[in-house]
Amino acid sequence: MPGTVGGAVRWATSRLGAAGVPSPRVDAETLLAHALGVDRSEARRLAVLDRVLPDGAADRFAADVARRADREPLQHLTGVAAFRHLELAVGPGVFVPRPETEEVAQVAVDEAVRVVAREGTAVVVDLCTGSGAIALAVATEVPGARVHAVELDAAAHRWAARNVAAASGDGPGADAVVRLLRGDARTALRELDGTVDVVVSNPPYVPPGAVPRDPEVADHDPAVALYGLGDDGLEVPRGVTAAAARLLRPGGLYVMEHAEVQAAAARAMVAGAGGFGPASTRDDLTGRPRMVVARRSGGTREHLATDPDGRPAAGRTVTD
Fold first, then answer.
1. Based on the domain organization, do 130 and 37 belong to the same domain?
2. Sign of torsion over alpha carbons 229, 230, 235, 237
3. Which of 7, 60, 239, 320 falls 20 to 30 Å from 302 in CA-CA distance?
4. Are residues 170 and 227 in the same domain?
5. Number of domains in the chain
6. Which residues constitute the domain of residue 304?
7. What's the confidence (pLDDT) of residue 319?
8. Angstrom distances, CA of residue 88 to CA of 12, 167, 210, 257, 285
9. What is the per-residue pLDDT across 265-318, written as a single tens digit (0 to 9) for each?
10. Model confidence, pTM
């Protein structure tokens, strides 16, 4: 490997590209920044200047490039994953949050903002929280939101607890920004039944025969976070949807991520759960149909009439 920063980046980019890494230059710069203990913009500046690469950093960088060339996730090497404005701790045992899921979080954030503006507070539940990405996005972006997150898997729960603690501030008296519970998403939080304003979830939904193509996913993301069980991969999502119907107040919003090919099946799943109005499909950041959105119907509580995407239905206030 060359002994200068610029040469090292070019060497790593070539090696990662030959290994099939989708974004070799970005990954090379990110790994170099991690080895040097600087941010990526500073690593790029040093590469342009072609400064000498310190021996210790060179050794760390070479080792990380070798692991990345073996298709170990970049986030496992750096220990962090970016999600919206957050930097989350991740590693083996937890699903690495994806940029595509940021739009799912946006739907939950937008609804929570509307509810807070109307009522002063909003109750939000994130089922199958994994690293805590969606729950923490809502909690940190929406003042007035009271966010609960549920995760069953022990390893993922530990990562979520670490991220919640980091976001909650220092000191023994600091309040957690998210109430994190280890439990089954299908049965958890019964004390909140009928009171929740938003239920959001990125559950496991991959069908059993649809092994992900990327080695980073297939070989490193935990299977419990990927495969939704059942012939269609929607057995776990069905349980999550039933829980959402139980938890939501009348007019409350449900949003769940799914695979691109599951859009029609996800809408049918929501219809089959009962208790929801018409479901709609929303696109992710790449323009693919990746989430189902629906409002809870029934009950007697007065609420602002909106369609599943949150747009007012002729400005009417209705009582079910």
1. no
2. positive
3. 239
4. yes
5. 2
6. 99-319
7. 30
8. 25, 9, 28, 20, 20
9. 999 999 999 999 999 999 998 899 999 999 999 743 334 344 555 554 333 233
10. 0.88
Distance of CA 254 to the CA centre of its chain: 15
Q: Is residue 92 part of a domain?
A: no
Q: Does residue 132 sit in the same domain as residue 25?
A: no
Owner of token pair 């500046």: 45
273 neighbors 301 (Cβ within 8 angstroms):
no
What value does the mean pLDDT of the chain take? 89
The model's confidence at residue 141, banded by pLDDT at 50, 70 and 90, is: very high
Give dist(CA 184, CA 61) in Å, integer. Answer: 40
In a domain, 85, yes or no: no
Given 19, 54, 70, which residue is the final one in a domain? 70
Nearest to 315 by CA among 48, 307, 215, 149: 307
**223 domain-assigned:** yes
> Do 293 and 251 lie in a common domain?
yes
| Sole residue written with tokens 């729950």 | 135
